[in-house]
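Q: I'm writing a short explainer about NAD(P)-binding protein for a general audience and would like to include a description of its predicted shape. Could you first generate the structure from this sequence?
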Amino acid sequence: MPSYVVTGASRGIGLAFVNELSVNSQNTVFAIVRNKSTATHLTALSRNNIVILEADATDAKALNLAAAEVSKATGGTLDYLINNAGGSTMLGLTATDPTPEAIEEDLLLHFKWNTISAVHSTNAFLPLLKKGTAKKVACITSGMADLDVTLQMGTTVQFSYSVSKAALNMVVAKYATELKPEGFVFLALIPGMVDTSSTAVSAPSEKFMAQIMALIPAAMKQFPDFKGPITPEESVRMQLEVIHRWKVEDSGAFVSHFGNKQLL
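A: Of course. Here's the predicted structure. Afterward I'll give you a sentence or two in plain language.
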């Protein structure tokens, strides 16, 4: 019976991972959320093979407690960890327009959400993963963390978010290098451009949306087959196909839901 931990599982892509995985009754899915009482979309799934656990992904102690609960349920093992938790202030900052205080605060916040959280989560569940059969860790990153795409498309917005996700890619590479001899597979996985508005807590600012919409013409030029944002469900199905087929020899890769560098 394969076991999965999904962080950031209350909405969006994380929720879609839990939903897709739990359709198979042979899977046990541990959904990590900050607050169970507000995870209404998740609790509405009401499947016996979903276990909801509370832990802020930036809180190492809380994640260790969650790992202990998973260990009790599985007999000390875990097969897959999907580090999906993360966030963005959606301020649309660039490198040059904020004050020094604003950019420092924004950078530190994004590193905590998108980089440090994955380190804490991986370390918390690593002892269980070492005893699992799959030994796979997928960290959900972003196409905005790709240097070539940034330069080719001229994307200046989401400065702190992009930097923190680029750092996450290096985190994946470091774990992959260290744990490859033990048969681990690590992936920095781009989900594509996904419309998560149906389960969002609040709508992004008009400025942020205008900046994102301005990227679409460049995206369509760079990726001629791009037809617009996809659903979380479509993205997750493609991501899981990549996760399940990825091999140890390619551990540490930075790829999209297509399994290559095609982002959109």
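A: For your explainer, you could say: The chain has one domain: 3-256.
Q: Perfect, that's easy to follow.
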